[in-house]
């Protein structure tokens, strides 16, 4: 899978094993974020758990106004919806 536009080439770097420490800010709706998490849930947990934790942490900070920052990230199943994770359900 490849992306067009400003993200063209990102998957090529990953497929070749190249790692970049540059970060990309993406803005998506909660439904879109849940779809991303659902897709990640289809991949082996060992491959995606750090990304899942990072996404969960960022979503929780945004949805809870930073209230979860002190608690630390808890990695839940990658397919669990973000709105449930952010509210501790």
Describe this structure in words.
It is a single chain. By secondary structure, the chain is mostly helical. It has a domain at 26-86. 46% of the residues lie in helices and 0% in strands. It has 4 helices and no strands. The N and C termini lie far apart (33 Å).
Chain-wise SSE layout:
Layout: H1 10-15, H2 30-40, H3 45-63, H4 82-86
Could you give a quick summary of the protein structure above?
This protein is mostly helical. The protein has a domain at 26-86.
Number of strands: 0
Structural class: mainly alpha
Quote the average pLDDT.
Answer: 75
- Ends apart, CA distance between termini: 33 Å
Outline: globular
Query: Given the structure, what is the number of helices?
Result: 4
Low-confidence stretches are: 84-89
- Over the alpha carbons, how many angstroms does the gyration radius reach? 14 Å
Element pattern in H and E: HHHH
Biggest β-sheet description: none
Q: Proportion of β residues?
A: under 5%
- Give helix % range: 40-55%
What keyword list fits this structure?
disordered C terminus; 89 residues; mainly alpha; 4 helices
């Amino acid at each position: 899978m490849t992306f067009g536009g400003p993200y063209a080439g990102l998957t090529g770097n990953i497929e070749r094993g190249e790692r970049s420490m540059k970060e990309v800010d993406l803005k998506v709706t909660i439904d879109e974020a849940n779809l991303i998490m659902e897709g990640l849930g289809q991949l082996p947990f060992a491959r995606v758990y750090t990304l899942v934790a990072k996404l969960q942490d960022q979503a929780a900070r945004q949805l809870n106004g930073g209230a979860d920052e002190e608690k630390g990230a808890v990695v839940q199943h990658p397919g669990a919806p973000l709105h449930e994770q952010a509210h501790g359900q």
